[in-house]
Design goal:
Blueprint lengths: L20 H25 L1 H6 L17 E10 L16 E6 L4 E6 L1 E2 L5 E10 L5 E5 L7 E3 L1 H6 L2 E5 L1
Parallel strand pairs: 1-8
Antiparallel strand pairs: 1-5, 2-3, 2-6, 4-5, 6-7
Length: 164
C-alpha cells in the first residue's frame, strides 16, 4: 500500500483588503477644496477684478500686438422729464454704466457724464474685448434692464438710450 500524501490544513480564505470608505471621501474633499481655492484665487486676481476697479491689464488701444483686441463703447442717455428725481433718480451725472456680454458678465464699467442739456448724458467705456456674441448696456438701477447690440453695432453705433 502506498502512503497517503500529507494532510494540509486549509483555513477559511481571508477576504481581500478594502480601503475604508472615509479615505475616498477624504481625498475627494481635499481635491474639491483645493480646486475651489485655486478657482477663487484666479477670479480674485483675474481681469474682471481689474476691470471693476477701473483699471485694466491690457492696453485699451486695439493696435497693441501683445494684447487681445479691445474697443471703446460710447453712447448717450437722455431723460425726457425730470431727470435726477422721482422715478429717474438713478439717472444722473456719475451714474454707473456697465457693458456686459451675452452671459451677463461685466466687461467694463463707466459713468454718465453731462452732455447737452440737463437731462442728457454721455458715456464712454474702454477696454471692451472683441469676440462676444452680444454686448449689452446697463444704466441705472436693475429695473431698467439691458439693451443689446451686436459687436458691430456696439463698436460703430454705440448705445443711444432714451427714458420717458
Amino acid at each position: 500500500m502506498e502512503p497517503l500524501p500529507p494532510v494540509v490544513a486549509v483555513g477559511p480564505e481571508s477576504p481581500p483588503q478594502r480601503r475604508p470608505p472615509w479615505l475616498a471621501i477624504g481625498f475627494t474633499l481635499v481635491a474639491l477644496v483645493a480646486g475651489g481655492i485655486g478657482f477663487g484665487l484666479g477670479r480674485a486676481t483675474g481681469p474682471d477684478l481689474l476691470r471693476s476697479a477701473g483699471t485694466t491689464s491690457v492696453s485699451p488701444t486695439p493696435s497693441s500686438s501683445s494684447s487681445p483686441n479691445v474697443f471703446t463703447v460710447s453712447g448717450t442717455m437722455t431723460v425726457n422729464g425730470l431727470c435726477g428725481s422721482g422715478g429717474y433718480s438713478d439717472i444722473r451725472r456719475g451714474g454707473q454704466v456697465e457693458i456686459v456680454n451675452q452671459d451677463n458678465e461685466v466687461l467694463g464699467v463707466g459713468t454718465l457724464e453731462t452732455g447737452v442739456g440737463s437731462c442728457s448724458f454721455e458715456f464712454s467705456v474702454s477696454g471692451i474685448p472683441e469676440g462676444e456674441r452680444l454686448y449689452g448696456a446697463k444704466i441705472g438701477n436693475a429695473n431698467r434692464g439691458v439693451i443689446w447690440h451686436s459687436e458691430q453695432d456696439a463698436k460703430y453705433q454705440g448705445f443711444h438710450l432714451t427714458l420717458g
